[in-house]
Amino acid sequence: MAFYEQDVGVHIDEKKLQARVRELGAQITRDYQGKELTFICVLKGSAFFAMDLARYVDLPLTIEFLGVSSYQGGTETTGEVRITTDVSKPMAGKHLLVIEDIIDTGLTMSFLLENLKARHPASVKVCSLLEKPSRARTQVPIDYKGFVIDDVFVVGYGLDYAERYRNLPFIGVMKGK
Ligand SMILES: O=P(O)(O)OC[C@H]1O[C@H](OP(=O)(O)OP(=O)(O)O)[C@H](O)[C@@H]1O
Ligand code: HPA
């Protein structure tokens, strides 16, 4: 039995996940023709998604990482979003695409959009693999969306529970959470 099977069930399998990531990459490629794009990968959760997506984007692409944390190990947000690592360059004049694994309450993304817009980029758009609309506390625009999910705590493909399960190649659901 694999290490996760007792606690985690498959929610979106690897094949479906990769097919959708490929479609999103093609859509982004079409929409940003003629432009230079900057991915803002929101750590840690979006790391796996962002790196797969980048391979499907056929454009000149700069990759920046921005670390934020608000769940701090549990299944409920603390409501306080903290930047743990900032991007390495000024963002003024750049076309930014913020890459997230999940928009749950929306608090992280709404904080990030306000923060990034204050840096005077040419544009800011949002790409999130998952959206959990039933838990939204604030409305955030999602320009590119992978899947809409129900109110379940998901793990895998970057998403964690107490730092575990990020390395699963599929989206799983925690049994009993
Ligand atoms: O819409 P929200 O309710 O704000 O939740 C979404 C955020 O929560 C998770 O990050 P977390 O704070 O757990 O940090 P991590 O990515 O390092 O796991 C996830 O990666 C998003 O960034
Ligand atoms: O469902 C989730 N799983 C893991 N991390 C999260 N951060 C917000 N929602 C989730």
TrEMBL record:
It comes from the Bacteria. Its cofactor is Mg(2+). Signal peptide: none annotated. Pathway: Purine metabolism; IMP biosynthesis via salvage pathway; IMP from hypoxanthine: step 1/1. InterPro entries: HGPRT (IPR050408), Hxn_phspho_trans (IPR005904), PRTase-like (IPR029057), PRTase_dom (IPR000836). It is found in: Cytoplasm. Its EC number is 2.4.2.8. Keywords: Cytoplasm, Glycosyltransferase, Magnesium, Metal-binding, Nucleotide-binding, Purine salvage, Transferase. GO terms for biological process: GMP salvage; guanine salvage; hypoxanthine metabolic process; IMP salvage; purine ribonucleoside salvage. Residues 16-161 form the Phosphoribosyltransferase domain. GO terms for cellular component: cytosol. It catalyses: IMP + diphosphate = hypoxanthine + 5-phospho-alpha-D-ribose 1-diphosphate; GMP + diphosphate = guanine + 5-phospho-alpha-D-ribose 1-diphosphate. Pfam families: Pribosyltran (PF00156). One of its GO terms (molecular function) is magnesium ion binding. Its main location: cytoplasm. Belongs to the purine/pyrimidine phosphoribosyltransferase family. NCBIfam families: HGPRTase. This is Hypoxanthine phosphoribosyltransferase. It comes from Archangium gephyra. The lineage of its organism: Bacteria, Pseudomonadati, Myxococcota, Myxococcia, Myxococcales.
